[in-house]
Amino acid sequence: MQIYSIEFTKIPDLPKTVCCIGFFDGLHKGHQLLLKTTLEEARKKHLPSGAILFDPDPWTLFHPDEEMDHLTPIEKREAMFQEAGIDILYIMHFTKEFAALTYEDFHELLFDMHVQALVCGTDFHYASHNSGSIHTLKAQERIEIIAIDPLMEDQIEKISSSKIEKEIEAGRIEEANASLGYMYSIDGTIRHGFQRGSKILNIPTANLEPDSLFTLPAIGVYAGYMKLKNSYYPAMINIGFNPTFGNTHKSIEAHVLDFDQDLYGKKVSFLFVQKIRPEHKFDSIEALKTQLKQDIETTRQILAKKSIQDWSSVINLL
Ligand SMILES: Cc1cc2nc3c(=O)[nH]c(=O)nc-3n(C[C@H](O)[C@H](O)[C@H](O)COP(=O)(O)O)c2cc1C
Ligand SMILES: Nc1ncnc2c1ncn2[C@@H]1O[C@H](COP(=O)(O)OP(=O)(O)O)[C@@H](O)[C@H]1O
């Protein structure tokens, strides 16, 4: 996959393409439908497939001092587009000037990028004050527009990144995973903690430092997996402040079941399946240990319900 970082004032010489366009945070089932349509149309037209996305998130323009978390920070999104088989990724640099373009200017930009057909949701909006819509896109005649209705969850609510984000933040992982079509995950590197896991509890817990700003599930204990290289290991994951020990910063740590390897410095992902319980302050270390042993059993029961092969990866869905 080729990646172009694009300034709207300096469009390089680009090939003709069939492109989808959007923010694509999470690459959820609705996004995956857009991608699938793009790949099919590109194949039919014998053109490369493309995806146009925007970075940084427009929200950051209006809140310059705040950082914004994402379901799939841009590096992860890039990897997922590559996995899905998109040929070219266009990352449009989102600036105040870019945000001020009229919808006619925006169409000119797409012509200059040699987009032949554009796949987008019927609810897609763009250009200054969100003045561009599916109607303005269809009113221009130089680019073929393929509009896809938003996918619905249980025919009630449309699947959206913001809905999934709220579910993750509330610990409703099963609902989020149903809309994503894959297991929500956070990528990072294993770092040293206080070594209470192996020294005091006899249950080692690997501490994850996320690679970028991921949306974090609610504080609590989860059944899930750790992915190391291309293998998935059953794990129970805790997100919180370890109140029994009174930590001052939030940690993300996992005890990997039936596993005994040094993980320090390793790049891994923690994947979330289901919340087991809230994080508690225990009266004694013994009480915490008893609970952790119970959590191991609960994790085994939850993970036994669905095999790892039954979880689709994005590529399987396309
Ligand atoms: C699955 C799991 C559940 C946990 N639940 C709690 C909890 O309810 N309360 C708590 O204070 N700490 C909890 N912990 C955190 C332990 O206290 C923590 O792993 C221990 O302090 C070791 O930290 P260290 O890796 O920094 O040495 C949990 C850890 C895991 C992996
Ligand atoms: N089953 C396991 N689950 C998690 N970590 C393990 C496991 N087996 C060995 N380890 C190693 O032990 C470390 C965690 O032990 P712990 O005493 O909790 O130390 P720390 O406080 O530095 O995380 C992990 O980073 C990893 O290198």
Assign the CATH superfamily of the largest domain: HUPs
Count up the helices: 11
Bound molecules: flavin mononucleotide, adenosine-5'-diphosphate
| Range of helix content | 25-40%
User: What does the average pLDDT come to?
Assistant: 94
- Residue stretches low in confidence (pLDDT < 50, at least 5 long) are none
The H/E string reads: EEHEHHEHHEHEEEHHEHEEEEEHH
**Tell me, what is the CATH class of the largest domain?**
Alpha Beta
Structural account:
Helices cover about 30% and strands about 30% of the residues. It has about 325 residues and is an alpha/beta fold. The protein folds into two domains: about 1-160, HUPs (Rossmann fold); about 170-315, Riboflavin kinase-like (Elongation Factor Tu (Ef-tu), domain 3). A six-stranded parallel beta sheet has the order 1-4-3-2-5-6, sandwiched between helices. The longest helix is centred in the last third of the chain and has 20 residues, at about 285-305. The protein is elongated. About 35% of the residues are buried. It binds flavin mononucleotide and adenosine-5'-diphosphate. Adenosine-5'-diphosphate binds near residues 190 and 205. It comes from Dubosiella newyorkensis. Keywords: ATP-binding, FAD, Flavoprotein, FMN, Kinase, Multifunctional enzyme, Nucleotide-binding, Nucleotidyltransferase, Transferase.
